[in-house]
Specification:
The complex is a heterodimer of chains A (317) and B (296). In chain A, 76% of the residues lie in helices and 1% in strands. Chain A is built from 14 helices and two strands; from the N terminus they run ααααααβααααβαααα. In chain A, helix 3 packs parallel to helix 5. By secondary structure, chain B is an all-alpha fold. Chain B has a domain of 201 residues. Chain B is 73% helix and 3% strand. In chain B, helix 1 runs antiparallel to helix 10 and helix 2 runs antiparallel to helix 3. Classes of the chains: A mainly alpha (317), B mainly alpha (296).
Chain lengths: 317, 296
Amino acid sequence: MDIDVRALLSRRINIAIIAGAVLLLLLPLILRHEYWIYVFTIGYYYAILALTWNIMAGYLRRVSFAHMALAAIGAYTSTLTIINFKIPLVLGMFLGMVVGALSSLFIGYLSLRLRGVYFTLSTLAFAEIFRIVVTVEYQYTRGSLGLEAPKLLGNILTYVPYYYVALAFLGAVTILTHLMLNSGLGLRVKAVGDSEEAAEALGINSARIKVFTFLYSSAIASLAGAFYGHLIGLVSPEICGFEQLALVIAMSVVGGLGTIPGPIIGALLIELLAEYLRGFGIYRYLILAALIIVTIRFFRQGIFGWVKKRVLLGVGM
Amino acid sequence: MVIELTALAENLIVGLLMGSFYALMAVGLSLMFSVMRIVNFAHGEFYALGGYILYYLTTLFGLNNFLALPLVMAGMFAIGLTVERLLLRPLLVEALGGEYAIITTFGISLFIVNFAIAFFGPEYKTPPSFVPIFRISLGTLYVSGDRVLVSLIAAGILLATCLIIYKTRIGLAMRATAQNRDGAMLCGIEVFKTNMTATGLAAMLAGAAGALLSPIMLLFPEAGSIPATKSYVVIALGGMGSLPGAIIGSIVLGVVESLGTVLLSAAYRDAYSFLVLITVLLLRPQGIFGVKVREV
C-alpha cells in the first residue's frame, strides 16, 4: 500500500472544513430561533479571540494574559471616540484596532526581548492596570456600570444580519491567518516558537518576529472587541474579566493548541456547552477549569488534533 | 508640612510591613521558579486557600489562631506536594514547553477560585485576628501594633525558610537543582523530589501569607489576585529566581506603593507595581540581583 498520507489527510481536512463552512452558512435557515442565532454570533466572537490567542500560545508559544484587555481597549476606544467626537462607527472600530495594536507594540517592545515568562508577567500586569484604570476613571468610562455602545447595524430586531457579519469576520480572520502561517513569515513564527536560539542561528530576527506576531494577534483581538461592544450594545470591564480570559483559553486548549480549526471548534463547542450549563450556575467555571487541566494533562492535542489523527486519517481504528 | 511628613512616615512604615507579606509570597514563587523554571500562576489562590483554611479552623473548630497557623501551613504544604506530583511533574517529565506549565497553573488558579465561590461562598469573610487591634505611638507617629506583630511572625517564617534553604540537605538539593538540573541529577540528587519540596514550600508560604493577612484585609475567592500580581512584579524586580532579590524587591515595592499613595493618588495604589515593572523591564531586565541566563 503506497498512499501519500499527507495528501490524503489534507484532502479529507479540506472536505471537512468546506462542509463545516457550508453548514454554518445555512445555519440560520435550519435554526429558526433568534436565541440560538445570537448564541452562535457570540460564539464567532469567541472563536476569533481563541484563534488569535492560539497564534501566540500554540505557534509562538508565548502565553498572553492581556488578550481580553486588548479586546476591551478596542471596545472602549471605539465607543468613546464615537460618543465624544461623533465619528462614523466604522472609523471608531478602526481606531479601536489601532489603539489596541499600539498597546501591544508597547508591551511587546518591553517584554518580548526577554524570556517567555517575562512576557506573560507583563501581559498580566498590563491587564490588571487596564482594569484598574477603567474602574477608577469613572467620569469617562462609568466604571463597572459600563457605557452604552451604539449598535453596529442600527435598530434591527433580528440577529441574523449580525450572524453573517460575525461569520464573515471569522472567515476573513481564518483565511488571513492560514495564509500568514503558511507563508515564509509563518514559517519564521513557528521556528521562533520551536527554538529561539536555533531560529537566531538561521539568521531570523526573533525579537522582530515575536513583536510582529503579538501585533497581528492583538490588532485582530481589538477589532473583535470593538465589534462585540457594538453587537451587545454595552462596553464594560466585564469584557476583560477573568472569566472571559478563562473561556478563551479553555476554547483554544480544548479545541487543540497549534491548529487553526481547533480554537474555532473549541469556541463553538464551549459556547454551546456554557449555554447548556447555565443551569449549573456557579459550577460552570469549575467545570471549565477542570476541562483545561484535564486536557493539558491527558489529551494534549485537543479535539482537532484527535480528530485529525483518529477519524480523518483512520489511525487506530 | 509637619502633618504631611507624619503621614509620609506612617505610610512608609505601612509599606515596610506590607513588604514582609509580599516577601512571603515572592520567596515561594521565586523558589519554584529557580528550581522548576515554572512561574506559578495559582500563587494568589494558594494565598486565598490559606486564608480559608484558617477561617474554618478558627470558626468551625474554635482553634486559636496561633495553633491554627501551623496547621494551615502543613495543609498547604500537602496541597503543594499534590499539585506538583499530579499536574506539574508530567509536564517536566515530557520536557514540554513553558506554555503548558503556564496554562496548567492558570487552570489550577481558575479551579481554586471557582471552588471557593461554589463551596465557601462568594461573600467577604473576616477570620478572627491574631492579636487585638492596638496602636503604638512614637511621638506624633501612630503605628498599628497588631500589624507590626503579624509582620514579625511573617519575618520569622521567612527566616526559618532561609535556614531551610541555606543550611539543610534538602535546601542544598534545591540550590543545586536551581543551578543546573542535569548536574544535580548526575550528583545523585532526586530532582523530582526536590521539585515537590519546592512546590510544597511555595504553597506553604503563600498559605501562611494568606492566613496572616486575611484577618486584616478581607477574605474572598479572588482575594489572592492582587498580592499575587505584586509578587510577580517583585520577582521580576529582584531578579527571577533570586531569594535575596525577592526579599529586597518586596521591601522596595512596599515602600514605592506607600510613597505613591501619599504623593500621587491613593486610588491607583495597586497600579504602581506596574510602573515598577515597566521601569525594571526598560532599565535592568535581569532585575536587581539577577544574572543574565543562557539557556542553550
